[in-house]
Structures are given as structure tokens and as C-alpha cells.
């Protein structure tokens, strides 16, 4: 084996070990993950400089999908090409996927329907989603136009509950944002560099859109369960803007009304997901396992993250053109505002309606919310407290 190949293998092993350590310790959601990445990749290891990191974060905030995972993929690409991106993704995602598959296997063997600790986890979900909405709304709906988009999105999502409601709201909000919103001028054209050719980027974008069209057609043509499952997770991963919490209403709309998973198991799993490090998108691993064992967990994970992977590689060589187009940024601003409305609708139904049944439930959600918002406790601690109180008192 020549020295160049040995060096590349060592580099990939290093990327895997560093990203896995981050996957084991990165609690707190995507914003916290970006802070961990900055400390590790920019300040400590100096794998990327501050400008490249800022450019990468800006791109991943612009794209649909799990922004922190996409930043990790991008850093791996900058370090060791596309194979480096895959390695970084696997390292960061692997710990939480394994943990959630294991938890799902344990929980499916229990009677979770009437367990007090499960009800406690459902109340935790209320507190966490409410806290996320308040934090996100400050940056995503700062003016009256975007507040109006959020309110309209909430109303449409609540009153028009179909399989296409969230996707329809996102597309309409993008069009409104394209017409009415624009990014403030920050002083000129921004240029950046990423080591992906336009040819490779174009192939990835073509594959992304092709799968988005082909999977539903293949599902209808074959009627195969696994194709239908892959399609649902892939489509969800393709339309998540604004952070990992947005995956909740989209996945709930895909799987609970169809009977693939019951509401109690769904919300309990969302609560459990807050207790593990890594990206919130790994909630898909839990759902897939509940529906179809560990094989389902693996398929669900691949399907929900595949759009994010294709988009970040596909957009890298075209990022300068996208970020300097005010109409495109306006469309993204409109989508981000609609995300707030979709989340508020999800907070009411199904989360609040199925979780807050008595006065003591409301009292507990106030306590848990205060722990997050005012005492600044890590989410995993709040999850453990909520489950324990549910076990003892509910």
C-alpha cells in the first residue's frame, strides 16, 4: 500500500473518530451542534478557516434538511472529498441512530399505551416544541410580513389537514417570499470556494429531484411496503426547513393518520429523541424500528438523510449564485416564516391535544418549560425528569 493511500485512510479514520465523538457528546439541537463544530473543527483542529465555516453554515441554513448534519457533511468534504463527507456523516449520526433503534426495540416490547413515564415523555414534547417555537420565531418572523405568513401557515395547516397540507403551505410561502421579501443588502457580492465540480453538483441535484418524482410513482406502481416507507421518509427529509423540530409535524402527518404507528408511540419516541445526542432527524430511526424492526430503522435513516446529502453536495458549486440572488433568499425567508406556523399547528394538534389532559399535566409542562427556558437545563435532563415524574405521579 503506497503512502498516499495510507495517508488517506488515516485521514478518513481521523474524520470518523472526531465526528463520532461529537455524535456522542453533542446535545442541545442544531444551534448547539454548530457551536460544537466551530470549537472542534475551526478553533481546535483548524480543518477549516472561519470564513469557509461561515459560508458552509450559511449554505446549510439556506437548504432544506438537518442543517447541523449538512455542515458536518460539508466539513468532511472540505477535508477529504465526498468520501470524507460520507465518513463525517456516519460518525456524527451513528451513535444516536444506534441508541434510538435500541430504545425502540425495548419500547415495542412494553405496553407503552398507559405507562405513566410515556405520558411524561409526551408532556416533555409539549415543553420542548413550545421552547423551540419561541426561540425560532425571534429570528424567522421578525417583521409583520413574516408574522402574517406564519399565521396563515398555521391556519391552513390546522384547517386543511391532508397528506399534502404542509408541503403545499411550504410551496405557497416560498412563492409569497419570492414576491414580497428580500434579504437586506450586506455590502456586496459574496464569493466562496468548495471542492465540488458543477458536474458532480448537477448530478446530485438531478438525482434529488428524480427520486422526489420517481418514488411516489414507484410506490403506486408496485404497492410495496418498503418502497412506500422509503418514499415517505425521503419526501419528509426533502421538505424540512427551519430546523430538526420541523420534522415532527411532517412525520406525524405521514405515519400516524395512516396507522403505521400510533400516536402514543410517536410522541413518546419524540420525547426519547431529545435525550440522545446528535441530530433530531434520527427520530426516523426510532419510527422505522417501531414499524419494521431494526431493518426499518436503518432504511428510515438512509431515506430521511439522503435528500440532505444530495442537496449539500449539489448546491456547493452553485452557492455563490444562489446566495447573491435576492429573490431566492426571499423565497427561503418566506418558507422559514411558514415553518413557525406549521410548528404552532403541530404544537396544538396532535401534541397538546393528546398530552395535556388534566390540570396536573399543564402544571408539569409549565415546570418543564421553565427548566428549558429560564434555568437553561440541557434537554436530556428535562426528558429524564419528565419521564420520572410521569412514572411516579401520572
TrEMBL record:
InterPro entries: Chr_Tranpt_l_chain, Chromate_transpt. Keywords: Cell membrane, Membrane, Transmembrane, Transmembrane helix. Belongs to the chromate ion transporter (CHR) (TC 2.A.51) family. Pfam families: Chromate_transp. GO terms for molecular function: chromate transmembrane transporter activity. The chain crosses the membrane at residues 89-110, 116-137, 149-180, 200-218, 267-286, 298-319, 331-351, 363-393. This is Chromate transport protein ChrA. It is found in: Cell membrane. It is a multi-pass membrane protein.
Amino acid at each position: 500500500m503506497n503512502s498516499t493511500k495510507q495517508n488517506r485512510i488515516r485521514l478518513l479514520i481521523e474524520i470518523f473518530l472526531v465526528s463520532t465523538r461529537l455524535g456522542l457528546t453533542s446535545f442541545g439541537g442544531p444551534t448547539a451542534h454548530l457551536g460544537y463544530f466551530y470549537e472542534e473543527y475551526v478553533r481546535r483542529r483548524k480543518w477549516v478557516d472561519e470564513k469557509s465555516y461561515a459560508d458552509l453554515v450559511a449554505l446549510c441554513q439556506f437548504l432544506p434538511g438537518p442543517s447541523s448534519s449538512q455542515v458536518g457533511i460539508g466539513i468532511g468534504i472540505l477535508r477529504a472529498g465526498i468520501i470524507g463527507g460520507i465518513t463525517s456523516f456516519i460518525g456524527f449520526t451513528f451513535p444516536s441512530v444506534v441508541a434510538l433503534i435500541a430504545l425502540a426495540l425495548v419500547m415495542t416490547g412494553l405496553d407503552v399505551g398507559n405507562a405513566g413515564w410515556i405520558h411524561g415523555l409526551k408532556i416533555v414534547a409539549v415543553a420542548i416544541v413550545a421552547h423551540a417555537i419561541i426561540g425560532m420565531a425571534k429570528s424567522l418572523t421578525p417583521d409583520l410580513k413574516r408574522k402574517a405568513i406564519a399565521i396563515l401557515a398555521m391556519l391552513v395547516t390546522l384547517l386543511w389537514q391532508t397528506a399534502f397540507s404542509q408541503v403545499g403551505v411550504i410551496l405557497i410561502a416560498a412563492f409569497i417570499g419570492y414576491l414580497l421579501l428580500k434579504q437586506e443588502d450586506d455590502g456586496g457580492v459574496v464569493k466562496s470556494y468548495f471542492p465540488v465540480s458543477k458536474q458532480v453538483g448537477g448530478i446530485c441535484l438531478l438525482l434529488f429531484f428524480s427520486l422526489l418524482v420517481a418514488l411516489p410513482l414507484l410506490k403506486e406502481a408496485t404497492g410495496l411496503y418498503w418502497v412506500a416507507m422509503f418514499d415517505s421518509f425521503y419526501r419528509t427529509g426533502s421538505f424540512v426547513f427551519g430546523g430538526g423540530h420541523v420534522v415532527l409535524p411532517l412525520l406525524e402527518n405521514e405515519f400516524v393518520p395512516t396507522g403505521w404507528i400510533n400516536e402514543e408511540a410517536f410522541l413518546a419516541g419524540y420525547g426519547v429523541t431529545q435525550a440522545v445526542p446528535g441530530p433530531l432527524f434520527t427520530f426516523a430511526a426510532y419510527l422505522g424500528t417501531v414499524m419494521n424492526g431494526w431493518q426499518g430503522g436503518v432504511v428510515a435513516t438512509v431515506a430521511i438523510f439522503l435528500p440532505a446529502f444530495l442537496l449539500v453536495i449539489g448546491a456547493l458549486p452553485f452557492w455563490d449564485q444562489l446566495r447573491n440572488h435576492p429573490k431566492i433568499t426571499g423565497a427561503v425567508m418566506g418558507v422559514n416564516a411558514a415553518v413557525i406556523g406549521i410548528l404552532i399547528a403541530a404544537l396544538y394538534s396532535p401534541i397538546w391535544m393528546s398530552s395535556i389532559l388534566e390540570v396536573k399535566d399543564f402544571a408539569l409542562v409549565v415546570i418543564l418549560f421553565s427548566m428549558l427556558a429560564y434555568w437553561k437545563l440541557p434537554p436530556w435532563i428535562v426528558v429524564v425528569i419528565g419521564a420520572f415524574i410521569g412514572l411516579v405521579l401520572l
